[in-house]
Write a structure and sequence with these properties.
single chain, 377 residues, alpha/beta, seven-stranded parallel beta sheet, four-stranded antiparallel beta sheet, 14 helices, 13 strands
Length: 377
Amino acid sequence: MNRRERLMATLEGRPVDRPPVNFYEINGLDEDAANSDPFNIYSHPSWKPLLDLAREKTERIVMRSVHFRNLGPNPLDEATTTKTEYLNGSRITIRTVQAGGRALTSRSRRDPDVNTTWVLEPLLKDAEDIRAWLQIPADERVGAVDVQPVLDAERQLGDSGIVMLDTADPLCLAAGMFDLGQFTVLALTEPQLFHRLLEWHSRALWRRTEAVAEALPGRLWRIFGPEYASPPYLPPALFREYVIRYDEPMVRAIQRRGGFARIHCHGKLKAILDAIAETGCTGLDPIEPPPQGDVELAEVRRAYGRQWVLFGNLEASDIENLNTRDFERKVRRAIVEGTSGEGRGFVLMPSACPYGRKLSDLALRNYEKMVAVVEQL
């Protein structure tokens, strides 16, 4: 089987010659080592062997967000101003939204040597900010789906992998407007108001998911955001309230067109696995092992393996910190637990990837070990 065939057979629950191995964000297509942008960590030469390995040896799953053409004016754009400043080499982005007589402001920072964005000040701080935000008309525009970037990526991948359509869910969009602590307080104490915020975000998101699923049928999707309502942040009852109600319509739209909806949820899953299953999804990642998670991959396989393709079970911190002999044991255990008994399929994959400018020799050896173990099967 070629790499694309192996992935598609796994998604469809058909037999494969060996489990696919994937490096999550690292795919050897999107990382541009020649880009001299000071915020591009992949320009450091330490990344080149890993990018080559991902390109040549892994089942590549390239994430793409889909955009729309001919949308027309957005009420939110008219209320928003954004400016960028630079401080000690870091890029500071300041966003201000005029809503309900309030000036809502967020600040974020991006450092040159770290491939992540730090939120210095969240946009919303309290319940009154939510009420002010809700006075902005919800963005319900759905224009023409721009399929070309997805088709271009599929052409570039050829038989080495697939494109995965990537989308936040309403909970991710709403919770991400707050500091995590304030989000949990408001989600617990102001459920009716928080539902109004989720509904505000869901109006366009549901319609756009439907449009993209129709324009690009049969693809793998990743829906991220449910972890905001996972333990210990919120109780399982609120996970059902804030995830199933808003994610199930997205899952149905995707799978009516032959797509595969994969829920992305870090952390402790034991108390919410049934609720995740109720969304109707056919995939789950990254299923982190204890102590980061609270359920073994074998348990998930036994209980839900007929419904879900399982992606994961390697912790990103182990790639960077665990000696290669011990890391190999974890790789082999994940493969055994992810493929034992009956089930749709398993993709060996880490929970994330390193985000510092220089990739360590240990991390590279551990990535190489993932591939070597799978190829020996």
